Amino acid sequence: MTTEQPAILIPTRNRPAILRRTLEELLRAGFGGHALLIYDDASDDPKSVAEVVALWPGVSRVIRSDTRTGQAKGRNALMRASPSEYVLFLDDDCWPESRAALIKALELVRSDGLAVATFHYRSLADGTLSIPPDQGRAKAKSFLGGASLFHVPTVLSVGGYRDCFVYGYEEPELTMRLWLAGHRIEYLPGITVVHNQFYTPDEKRDYREYDYLYARNGILLSSLNMPWWLGLPCGLMRSVRRSIHQRRNMRAKFIGTLSGVWLSFALWRERKPSSISQAMEWLRFSRSAPG
Q1: pLDDT, the chain, mean
Q2: Nearest in space to 32 (alpha carbons), one of 82, 93, 95
Q3: Would you say residue 201 has pLDDT above 90?
Q4: Quick count: other Cβ atoms within 10 Å of Cβ 3?
Q5: Domain positions in the chain
Q6: pLDDT band, residue 4 (cuts 50/70/90)
Q7: Is 139 exposed, middle or buried (0-12, 13-18, 19+ CB in 10 A)?
Q8: 198 by DSSP, 3-state: which?
Q9: How many CB atoms lie within 10 A of CB 28?
Q10: Which tens digit of pLDDT belongs to each residue from 62-116?
Q11: Most CB within 10 Å of its CB: which of 58, 91, 198, 216?
Q12: Cα(155)–Cα(9) distance, rounded to whole angstroms?
């Protein structure tokens, strides 16, 4: 791995037009000299993804999965294939406004030994920011998977993402394991990532799957990383609270909740439980930290 400039890593599935817009904006912002790695998560038309990536003027590569895996496993594959020690993770519908600001952030990540630095989104739909504009630099309880700089060796040292999460709570789960291992995750102000998200049919969202996975993974987030007698109730409360907040796909959410409880025991050997004191410290920290 080299450390000259971060590679750009993007997972995608069945959204070549949205990916094309993202790559065009990245080129407009001056990122054409960065290596680009795309994880094609079993798109129905892989040729269309390859054609879009072929427009990139610098080093580029498409990692193609023949079966659907989800973003968690896809991001792991991208990290392992990265030519750079530091990487910029983006979703296929977002891009940084400024390359100069991002390079300054990279200097901070390197000099301060951060595992992950995260930034805020600016919604292209309505202009809102994901984190208040007056929020200063701070330790974060999570990060945005599509707006973050990773130090790849550090993240992989704790195993990277859990493949089984597919997507949904995969970022806070990884943050917790990094935090428990003594690594630092921080929010850095001054870097804006544009989020090209409008919730239209073109974005091809499966809300049943979305609600199922969030209900399931909300439990696993805590049950796999805390003493089970504390983690399982905390996870259940998180899952139920999220499920009743938005009343849709209640059957999928119910099944997801049951699946989360069952997997908490089925994945027993994959647990990395914290001590009681660490768990309590994490709960106190996560109530106030941005992310």
Answers
A1: 95
A2: 95
A3: no
A4: 11
A5: 7-201, 206-288
A6: confident
A7: middle
A8: coil
A9: 10
A10: 999 999 999 999 999 999 999 999 999 999 999 999 999 999 999 999 999 999 9
A11: 216
A12: 14
